[in-house]
Write a structure and sequence with these properties.
By secondary structure, the protein is an alpha+beta fold. It has helices at 19-25, 73-85, 139-148, 155-161; strands at 3-7, 13-18, 29-37, 43-48, 59-61, 63-65, 92-102, 108-119, 131-137. The protein has four helices and nine strands.
Length: 171
């Protein structure tokens, strides 16, 4: 049973709960999102597997997940990035934000999302249980495509793209 870390708005740990139950109840929990850029400034996107319990088949940042109770967020980000994308590097923390949105009639995403970045110039080795496809794109292309086709992208990724803390990376 996957558990998530329940937190308050200041990111203080309140306990833990089954991941699906937290999403059904819309309870605030800790999460992370990783943005990977190459040396040309292009952003690595992953297309989520259609088998995911939500947002399957949508484009999003390179990796996102939830840390477990007994691991640091740094350990969780490195482990998950390697698991999903086959990329072994330690992402750098940039900022965190809270968002809440209804995913469907049964699930609500209510997360305190820690955003990390990293640089990678290789070819990802994707885990097909998690990731359907991947690509590097320019920020200009991405912003235009999100504007023209917002339904192709995850909700949290669109929020991250519009966050002021991302501006230094979005040249």
């Amino acid at each position: 049973m996957d558990k998530v870390i329940l937190v308050d708005e200041q990111d203080n740990v309140l306990g833990s709960m089954d991941k699906m139950e937290a999403h059904r109840q819309g309870i605030l929990h800790r999460a992370f999102s990783i943005l990977i850029f190459n040396s040309k400034g292009e952003l690595l996107l992953q297309k989520r597997s259609r088998n995911k319990y939500h947002s399957g088949g949508l484009w999003t940042n390179a990796c996102c997940s939830h840390p477990t109770l007994n691991e640091s967020i740094d350990d969780a980000t490195r482990k998950r990035l390697k698991y999903e994308m086959g990329i072994d590097l330690q992402p750098t923390y940039v900022y965190k934000f809270i968002y809440e949105c209804k995913l469907n009639e049964d699930l609500t995403e209510h997360e305190l999302d820690h955003v990390f970045t990293g640089t990678f110039d290789g070819t990802p080795i994707i885990n097909l249980d998690e990731v359907e496809d991947w690509k590097f794109v320019t920020m200009q292309y991405l912003r235009e495509d999100v504007y023209q086709h917002p339904d192709r992208y995850t909700i949290w990724f669109k929020l991250i793209l519009n966050h002021p803390e991302l501006k230094p990376f979005a040249a």
